[in-house]
């Protein structure tokens, strides 16, 4: 059985280029891999998740809606928006870029303003190994760029300018201090 858990932010798998997924020598069924990742992504409250974030050395990302924390245990989140990308490659980028706040399941509580192209063209393989290609914009393009960066060993902090990164780190420290204060005050 395949092991899975979120890796710590210091894990070296996060900063190296990840190997392509080999459909001919897959140790685990691609559908099982994607089901595990979609569940982890949704329950973690993320919009996207890359295989190295769970310690897997394979070029695989999933995107979709996070699970509603108010939903009952047996309720399913909306799977309609879930997508899977094996061996994704961004083939074209918009020249127009925009800032948006990004978070990451690997770095809980850290939210950084990052500038990225507003649309991309991406090619990938489906769970069956079939080739696919699509042009996408908006939030989907943003999420895919963030997750493909994970496959290339690039963390979102390195995409941020120094000002936005420092501001985000200060906010995280402030939130952690408040959390500790609230926890110690409730005992």
Can you put this structure into words, describing what you see?
The protein is built from four helices and seven strands; from the N terminus they run αβββββββααα. With 187 residues, the chain is an alpha+beta fold. A hairpin with a 5-residue loop joins strand 6 and strand 7. The radius of gyration is 17 Å and the shape is globular.
Keywords:
187 residues, alpha+beta, Peptide Deformylase, five-stranded antiparallel beta sheet, two-stranded antiparallel ribbon, 4 helices
Q: Structural class of the secondary structure composition?
A: alpha+beta
Distance between the termini: 41 Å
Mean pLDDT: 90
Main sheet: strands, sense, barrel: 5 strands, antiparallel
Q: Main sheet: which strands, in order across?
A: 1-2-3-6-7
Helix content: 25-40%
CATH C-level name of the domain at 12-95 and 119-155: Alpha Beta
* Rg value: 17 Å
- Strand share of the residues? 15-25%
Q: What overall geometry do the principal axes of the alpha carbons give?
A: globular
Unreliable spans are none
Order of helices and strands: HEEEEEEEHHH
* Architecture (CATH level 2) name of the domain at 12-95 and 119-155: Alpha-Beta Complex
Query: How many E-type strands?
Result: 7
The fourth-level CATH homologous superfamily of the domain at 12-95 and 119-155 is Peptide deformylase
**Multimeric organization:** single chain
């Amino acid at each position: 059985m395949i092991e899975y858990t979120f890796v710590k932010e210091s894990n070296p798998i996060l900063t190296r280029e990840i190997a392509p997924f080999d459909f001919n020598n897959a140790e685990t069924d691609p559908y099982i891999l994607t089901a595990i990742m979609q569940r982890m992504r949704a329950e973690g409250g993320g919009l996207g998740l890359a295989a190295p974030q769970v310690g897997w050395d394979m070029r695989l990302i999933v995107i979709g809606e996070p699970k509603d924390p108010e939903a009952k245990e047996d309720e399913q989140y909306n799977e309609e928006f879930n997508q899977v990308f094996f061996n994704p490659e961004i083939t074209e980028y918009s020249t127009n870029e925009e800032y948006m706040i990004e978070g990451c399941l690997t770095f809980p509580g850290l939210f950084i303003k990052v500038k990225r192209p507003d649309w991309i063209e991406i090619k990938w393989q489906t769970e069956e190994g079939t080739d696919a290609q699509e042009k996408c914009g908006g939030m989907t393009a943003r999420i895919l760029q963030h997750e493909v960066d994970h496959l290339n060993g690039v963390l979102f902090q390195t995409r941020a300018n120094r000002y936005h990164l420092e501001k985000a780190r200060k906010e995280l420290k402030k939130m952690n201090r408040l959390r500790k204060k609230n926890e110690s005050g409730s005992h």
